[in-house]
Amino acid sequence: MDANGSRFHALVTRADWTARATPDAHWDWLPDDAAQADALGQLVLKPLLFEFKAGTAQALDEPTSHAGGAFDAYGNLYSLSADGTAIRVWSSGSGTLTDFWPLPEPSPAPPDPGAFGPCAPAAPPPPWVLEALTVTTGHYLVVASRAAGGLLIFDLHGGGPPLPQPWADMPEPRALLALADGGVALFDVDRALHRLGPDLRPCVPRVVSPSAFRPEPAADAEPPPPPCRLALGADATAVAALPGDRFLVLRDRGDRRHLAVVDWTGVAGNEVGPLEAQIRDATAGGVLPQLSRRTLAVEWPADPDASGFSVLLLAASGDQAFRFRAMAPEAAGGEWRFTLQRDFIPLRRYAAGGFASLAPGQVLHRFPSARAFYFGADRWLPLLTLPRPRCERDGVLDGPVWDSATPGCVWHRVALDARRPPGSSVTLQSRAADTPDGLALQPWRDEPALLPHPGGPELPWREPSPGACKEVQTLTCLLQAATGRYLQLRVQAASDGQQSPGLAALRAWYPRFSYLQHYLPTVYRADAASSAFTERFLALFEGELTRWEDRIAAAQLLLDARTAPRETLEWLAGWLAVVFDGSTGPARRRALLRHAFGVQARRGTVPGLLLAATLAWEPDDVDAEPWLAAPEALPDRLHGVRLQELFGLAPPLPAGAWRPAQGRAALLERLGGDDSLLADPARLQQALGFVPRAAREEAALLVPARLADVPDDEPRPRSEDFDDYLVATQPCAPLRQRWQDYLARRWRRISLLNAAWGTGWRGFDRIPSPLGLPAGSAALADWWRFEAQIVRALTPAHRFRVVLPLPADTARLDFDELARRRAAVERAVARDKPAHTVAEIRFGFELFRVGEARLGHDTRLELGLLRRPELAALTTDSIWPPFVLGERDLGGGQLTHPRPLPPRDRVGLDR
Asked: Where is the composition biased (Basic and acidic residues) (predicted)?
């Protein structure tokens, strides 16, 4: 409700636009993911698939069993040559395609003249024809060849020649599929799958003879192993392996293709198809395409934690690939769904060479955005999506019938939050009546053109939602003659076929607050035609004035961090003396304002500095509420920022050093009877564990002052030379001032000190630093505490260090982003630290040094050098012994190794 009492009906969510309103078939909702149905989106003209117009309609030959490839764990791609007589490898490092096996035989040396030998060299045996290959999860390259009598197994960890695995009567293979358990499935020409276990030996069906004495199986008995052979049906033309011992099957039904998922038990899920119908509905021409019968690839996400996958199918012409996103029954209402993605994926010089897909989470650094590759132009090429947006050219949407509950209501204006790119347009029509039946008989009336609102959204202090597009703007128009209890709107959109307008929200305001009725005399309403014009004319001013009245009436929104617009957060922070860093996002700024009292109360303290450094280091998408609510818990946060107070790094005194409880005589005995504190520094270090500094400072000041010695007690009679010495040297003796301040804090009154020391000093400011061991036990204890605890802690005092951890995902470090975040921490610490302190910023791996890191406080050895829990897993491996304090030398433990090592029981020719 605005300041004048007007209200509005609205369309905001997906349910509003698609259920309450009535869009025609030319509209679609973005995002179209069912899992994000509640997210902020837009109603757009239906996106279309860009259809590649091939130069010829002739279909390519279907790929043979030699086509396709498989990646190993290091990104090397193995494939067969066109004739199937060699294995080729595309190296991830160099990007070159070379022969992997068999290697060319060296040419024989020419025979010596006169030596015995064959008249003609023996003809080499014909090469084996290799028919299919795959790389297992155990990092074996398995090749099927009937000419070789079975399988050839290459150990990609150990290297060496292949290990033959005989397979009598092996069926003619079409493809080899790597299974999750380390085994292999062979898909033959008879449309059947044959299973090989993790030992890569053919499975033999177990025949159990009937027996009357066999006990009944227990209820908790292990399930029987999967069968050795699974018939997929005569229409199965291509297969891909899925997790959970399931298989994706492409079925050929004449000129139609279908997808289905089956498991080893033969239980098939629902069948999805025909796939050509989805492609026909998503293209502008509506022509039924032809898909390849033998080409099928599964595209896995680059994020290892992401779920789901996509299916790649190829056009029969070989010019374009199609991506279908798969949704498992758990997320799709109990059935498998394969939805066409409107992505343009062209292929260049493809010659039926097949596809190769990366494993989940695997990324090639040379092609970081590619997830699948195809063979063409004698090399493997990445399968990339090119931006070719296409959409419907027009669409009509009829809004719901809105009831104002007021007969003869004058509907005021319409505000439409929309995106209107160049080449597109949005127009509005309306009709109104006092009865629903009369509304259906009313013709549609064209309303004025929708124009951008001069002040942005007409709602007071409203800003676009965080997930809204930046191009969304508020378009408004004044309804001309919409009078009646019921109102219905019609939105018409048009585009150039490339960029679609987007409808985010629509608001219809009612009733109109009439300046003519409230502020002008009756004479201005005498003529109906002129009064109607006057009312609409004054409504233009009413709309702008009401917007300002609404902002004044809703001024309390500016004082709440949750509702204040983004541009007012700096102003609100000024009231609370909160300073924002330039890199801090709006969400983090709002959280800081909500907890401003606690943040300001801890500013300059250890929890406050740790909180400021954590907020500057962690990205804005991380929830900061727990840290702001309880910053005292930040030191216990795993993989978090650490704050080291460097005075805690001062080494303790040796166990054999002298202590005041041992008495002055014991110290004199260690010093050889010399009570001077200016004696040999090595002897003082051995006896005390430190070298006194205050005595050397005092002795250096005696020489220019021409004073023979400093007194142990107040001189009597009064010595003018000593008075002049104190006045002249006091500004140059910082340790003497600290000594006097220490005594003043300890004894409070000079009379108490004189009673304990047996002296007669007139004031604390007259006590110099002693040049020899004090005679009394109380004075000796005071001197020892000052030198051993205060002076030794001066070097690291008022200094601290902020230790930054590396992000968890060190495989994708962005060093520029790390530098920006470190600079943000430096600014935050410099802003909040006390002025007399000195701070430094270091990364955690820089401090893992003996003598610099405190185990249990600043570092955690069990989490590894980079605070990575993965490194701790090495301690459980019997190959690498764990690093145990007190049991192993510092150079005898290992925190990581350069490459994954195979298990000890691995079968290979090298071990």
From this structure: 902-911
Query: Are 770 and 671 in a shared domain?
Result: yes
Examine the domain organization and report whether 458 and 530 are in the same domain: yes
Of the candidates 739, 760, 759, 651, the one whose C-alpha atom is nearest the C-alpha of residue 695 is 739
Asked if residues 162 and 186 have their Cβ atoms less than 8 Å apart, the reply is: no
User: Domain count of the chain?
Assistant: 3
**In this structure, are 682 and 593 located in the same domain?**
no
Contact 695, 678 (CB under 8 A): yes
- CA-CA distance, 339 to 323, in Å (whole number)? 8
Are residues 515 and 407 part of one domain?
A: yes
Structure tokens that stand for 685 in this block:
């270090």
What is the share, in percent, of the chain residues with pLDDT greater than 70? Answer: 84
User: Residue 908: what pLDDT?
Assistant: 53
**Helix residue ranges, H only, 833-864:** none
How far is CA 493 from each of CA 20, 418, 450, 498, rounded to the nearest angstrom?
Answer: 18, 11, 12, 13
The answer to whether the CB of 295 falls within 8 A of the CB of 282 is no
Q: What are phi and psi of 298, to 5 degrees?
A: -105, 130
400-410 pLDDT, tens digit each: 999 999 999 99
Q: Is 396 in the same domain as 508?
A: yes
**Residue 324: strand, helix, or coil:** strand
Q: Please tell me the distance from the alpha carbon of residue 416 to that of residue 429, in angstroms, as a whole number.
A: 13
Is residue 248 one of the residues assigned to a domain?
Answer: no
**Domain end call among 769, 791, 813:** 791
- Count of beta carbons in the 10 Å neighbourhood of residue 172: 13
Q: Count H helices and E strands in the chain, helices first.
A: 19, 40
State the CATH number of the domain containing residue 531.
Answer: 2.60.120.260
pLDDT tens by residue, 494-515: 999 999 999 999 999 999 888 7
From 615-629, 649-663, 714-728, 878-892, the region with the lowest mean pLDDT: 878-892
Final residue in a domain of this structure, among 553, 584, 609: 553
- Check whether residue 520 and residue 566 sit in a common domain: no
Which phi and psi angles does 510 have, rounded to 5°?
A: -160, 160
Q: Is the pLDDT of residue 33 over 60?
A: no
Quick one: three-class SS letters along 798-827?
CEEEEEECCCCCHHHCCHHHHHHHHHHHHH
Q: Is residue 500 in a domain? A: yes
Element spanning 321, H or E: strand 320-327
Cα Rg, the chain, nearest whole Å = 42
* Lowest-pLDDT choice from 78-82, 601-605, 796-800: 796-800
Question: Does the residue 329 lie in any domain?
Answer: no
Is 645 contained in some domain? no
How far apart (Å, rounded) are the C-alpha atoms in residues 313 and 332? 21
Query: Using CA atoms, how far apart are residues 754 and 760, in angstroms rounded to an integer?
Result: 6
Q: Angle of helix 777-785 relative to helix 750-757, nearest 10 degrees?
A: 120
Total Cβ atoms within 10 A of residue 5: 8
Q: Which of 274-288, 563-577, 739-753 has the lowest mean pLDDT?
A: 274-288
Task: Using the CB atoms, write b or e for 596-632: b if 16+ within 10 Å.
Answer: bebbeebbeeebbbbbbbbbbbbeeeeebeebbeebe
Examine the domain organization and report whether 448 and 585 are in the same domain.
no
The pLDDT of residue 50: 85
| Residue 873 pLDDT greater than 70, yes or no | no
User: What's the pTM?
Assistant: 0.67
The answer to whether the Cα torsion of 473, 475, 476, 481 is positive or negative is negative
Q: How far apart are CA 893 and CA 880, in angstroms?
A: 8
Residue 367, helix vs strand vs coil: coil
The amino acid that residue 678 corresponds to is L
Q: Show the domain range for 586.
A: 557-598
CA–CA distance, 677 with 780 (Å, rounded to integer):
12
Burial class (CB in 10 A: 0-12, 13-18, 19+), 761: middle
416 lies in the same domain as 478: yes
